[in-house]
Structures are given as structure tokens and as C-alpha cells.
Amino acid sequence: MWRVGAFRTAKGLRSLPNQSEIPHMVVSAKKHDGEAVVLTPPVVSASAAPALPTSTPTASSSTAPSPTPEPTTKVKRVGGGHQKPKPISMAELSNDLVRVRVSNWLWLLKISASAFYARVDAGNIPEPTGKDGPSNKRPYWTAGVVRSFLEQHQP
């Protein structure tokens, strides 16, 4: 409920013209002389006030709009997402217990990760000896398998 007859502007409190023509209940703000109008709520006496509920409203039942989330900025990936070549020495390849990873293959063959996986799919590079890691997804080859492959494919 809003009190009819007065409104607030940037210049202060003003009265409305032709108050008899204005409806008793004003629901929305109106404009007067190009200024925004904010109507003040009515003054209600204690005897005329309706009974209020005894329970306190919860946060979920409030009608206040929820704050809009801040726009997130997309973080640009650095590095392209593929593995980078990692050097491995011939001394390490002489030990048959050493596990050779994809990054080591990239360094040995001087190719990209996409080219490496394409060659594995085509059968030009032997299948991994095994997989390990947190969810058994990281392929590895034993040094003996890699040594025999390199001996067969050296120019």
C-alpha cells in the first residue's frame, strides 16, 4: 500500500497535482515533470494494521532477487594440452626395467603427440607393454621394446 498525495524526488518531497483524480491505491512508481517518483508507504495505525504471521520468514521464502553471479573469465590454456617431449638417455634405455613414456617417445622420434598416436593406431609403433597411473590410463613401454624398435627403424 502506498500513500497518495506525496512523492520523493531528487529535489525533495512534493505533492501530486489533482489528488482527487489519483486512485486510492498506487501500485507502481509514476513520473511527474520528468523526474522519477518513489511513492512512500502509508502510515498505518496499530488498530488498523492486519495481523502479521508469528513465524519468521526463512531465506528461501523471501522474495528478494538472488544476486547475479559475477561473470567468469575464460582462462586461456597455455601449451596446447599435448605432452611435451622429455629427454631420455641411452644409458637409461640399456636397463630393461625402465619404463618409457609417451613423452620419451616424442623426444626419441622427434614427432608430435598427434603424429605419435596416429602411428600407434596404424600399427607402426608397438602397442604399450602396460598402463599405470591413477586410473590405469598412462601407457608405458619397457626399454627393451623401445631399443628393439629403434634398432629396426634406424636409417
Automatic annotation (TrEMBL):
Amino acid composition bias (Low complexity), ranges on this chain: 45-65
Stretches for region Disordered: 45-88
Compositional bias of kind Basic residues: 74-85
Record's protein name: Uncharacterized protein
Source organism of this protein record: Paraburkholderia xenovorans (strain LB400)
